[in-house]
Design goal:
By secondary structure, the protein is of the alpha/beta class. It has three domains: about 80 residues, Orthogonal Bundle (Arc Repressor Mutant, subunit A); about 100 residues, D-Maltodextrin-Binding Protein, domain 2, CATH 3.40.190; about 100 residues, D-Maltodextrin-Binding Protein, domain 2. It is built from twelve helices and twelve strands. Strands 4-3-5-12-6 form a five-stranded mixed β-sheet, sandwiched between helices. Strands 9-8-10-7-11 form a five-stranded mixed β-sheet. It is elongated, with a radius of gyration of 25 Å. The termini are far apart.
Amino acid sequence: MGTRMNWNEQRISRQLKLRDLHVLMTVARSGSMGKAANQLSVSQPAISKAIADMETALGVRLLDRNPRGVVPTIYARALLDRGLVAFDELKQGIEHLNFLANPTTGELRIGSTIAIATGFLPAVIDRLSRKYPRVVFHLSAGEAAMTYRSLEERSVDVVIAPMFASMAVEHLNTETLYDEPLVVVAGAKSVWAKRRKIELAELTRAAWTLPPPDSLYGSVVADAFRANGLDVPPATVFTSVTAARNALLATGRFVSIVQGSVMQFNLNNPAFKVLPIDLPTTRRPIGAITLKTRTISPVARLFIDNAHEVAKALPQQN
């Protein structure tokens, strides 16, 4: 072990195959030769031999053994990172071939924030699925940071999320869909909902439900209050769960600050009322984000194009 080897394409194809990478990935994920053998429906000696052959071919140790099983070495992690890319690109290539054979089918994995997933995205998916009813969508939503991480890990094909300046974008393709402000919202039963004119300062003693202070939108909310010469009010409930805030708003006791598109796509909901308060410092671009190093699928391209069309109807767009 430890001998440096010069590899050419012919030798790589002869001594390192996709099956080998798959075996290594399975062992690393399961942490056990025996568990990997069960998952791959082969014998444990076959797994051990495959790993040993890879170690011999590469000249480095790939797994460290301990009483609890095995863990990948730094060499294995480096190989697995690139192996993940190789498998992902192959999968994308196969999906592209399937699309070329039948452009009305395909699968798309979308990551987004919870707020956008409850307003803007359903409108985009509905529009595209009417044209291509056999396309299957997998939608996951969470905190913006988690959503970006899922893109890095290639567990989603495209992310629809706010584009914050604090996020590194050198390795990302970004397309701005629309600019979105935050809006102040109360329940329709609230005393505030009946007011035609209202200042943010008047709400400082109201019962608030706000995004967590340490979240990306929590900082935007704080900036909005500071821009009005106010401290952030002591909220009763801090949560990023849109459904929870909506339920609290519906009681008529609470007020909140949410993304404008959430209300735009829920205009017919009688439970909420957008209050006439302008928050100009809260406007943020919402974008379609993909990895520069990853081939975008035709279905993903169709989805982004349809997202642009839906965004044109939003009054918040510049």
